[in-house]
Amino acid sequence: MWLSLLFILILSGILTYIILDRTVSRLTAVPLWILWAVLMLPPLLTGGIVTWSKQIPPLPLLLFVCSGCWLLYWRLLDWGKPKPRSLPQPFEARSETNLAPSEIASQPAEISDSLVSPSLDSAATTSEAMAPVPRPIEPEEESILKTCFAWNVFFLEKIEYRPQAVLCRGKLRTDPDNAYNTIERNVRELLGDRFFVLFQYSLSTGKPFFALVPRPQPAQAGRSRRWLDWAVAVLLFCLTLIPTTYFGAALARLPKGDLGDILQAGLPYALSIISILGIRDLGRYIVAQFYQIETTLPYFIPLPFFPGTYGCLVQMQSPIPNRKAIFDLGLVASTLGLAVSIPLLIWGLAHSETVPLELKSTLLSFHSFDPRFSLTLTLICKLALGARFVADRAIDLHNVAIAAYISLLIIVINLMPLRRLDGGYIVHGMFGQKPSAIVSQLSKIVLVILGIIRFRASSFGNTDLLFLSFIIALIPAIDEPALNDVSDLNNWRDIVGIAILAILVLTLIPVPAILSQFLDV
Fold this sequence. Notes:
The chain is α+β, with helices and mostly antiparallel strands. The protein has helices at about 1-25, 30-55, 60-80, 100-105, 125-130, 140-145, 175-190, 225-250, 260-290, 325-350, 375-385, 400-415, 420-430, 435-455, 465-470, 490-510, 515-520, and strands spanning about 155-160, 165-170, 195-200, 210-215, 300, 310-315, 355, 395. The strands form 3 sheets. The chain has a 4-stranded antiparallel sheet, covered by helices on one side. The chain has a two-stranded antiparallel sheet with strand order 5-6. α9 runs antiparallel to α10 and α10 (about 325-350) packs across α13.
């Protein structure tokens, strides 16, 4: 067994390094071996414990290590983002209002995190204020830039220079969509494709402004590299089949035996969870291609511990154009995941058996599953099982039901309105960057309160939701703005967004006592 585990670890390490080299090597100054070590720590730790103690590590320990390494990985990426290079011959900072260089350097500046940083609303230091500020455009191009702003579209009041951007402040005179499209087209026609054009709200004043950020030169991917990316994606998919099939056989109480028996017992779980999470992330990839956002291919993430995979990794490699695209990235992924997981969950529940209810039942008690911690899961179980699911009964889940339930948990967790999660995309698209950060902080508080309530209701013995809430609370709240982060969504997207977030709320709240008595559950 340890030889097969060593082979999987070595192969996973090689593939992880290849993916990092292909995706993030140009996005951060942190050495790749450090990022590789952070990502490989969970499987190496798990493999070491399994090899020496012949036991699977406790699930809370695995969740803590994985979440901590994942958060550290994103922190390292943010910390190591390269700063833009200064111009060979920096010019003194000037603005249309003829402010002194120190005054200009002390003005707030907000720039997208996908390009430079989340939002730079801090003042410059004294030494920075005294130094000349490099300008991304030549002095003679300033007059050309002014002609891009028509007075009846965006009345330009002043231009400020930063080493990484040109900030254009003024008053919006038309609807945001028309303003952005007009000015972005003018900048592209007069100054070429040298700049990303950002349109966002100032976090300090709340007023919209434009920013021109130098566009990095895209790396030309050769044909051999594209084939290598596809080969890595297919190899990771095949590699993900190994742990998911093994854990599926273990859930069917058949972790050992003939290969045919293991495949027959484990493949229903493996194919179900891979299909649900794969379709979910494939939807995100298709939406990104529709909006012409550069992304990696969907790479499955094999895990050497249960549940065997967390789905696919689709990394954005270019800025998101607008809030509608942000919204659709979160909506399509979560909707497809729900549309596949719920029917499979109903089918799996219909082929499950009811058992006597145990006093201590956690989120992962698959052979004595108590869904009453969630209103949505309780209604689905009652629909699928009918009179077999009553007050004193739990459920011995079928393998397909386990896969669908685990996938549903992952989808619901991703519906939390937090940075880089589906819910964060949806809330950001609906309300904008600053309001979404407020909603994110409030949701963390609510989740911790729900975890405490569940902990107390279980006589201080059920810590799963409380532990999960503390892990989620570590995720940053504020998200990166889109290029056009001012234009609002249309009404139907707002309605659909509220509906999809309602599923999150209904899944997190327990069954009310009145409804529990009415349904006899």
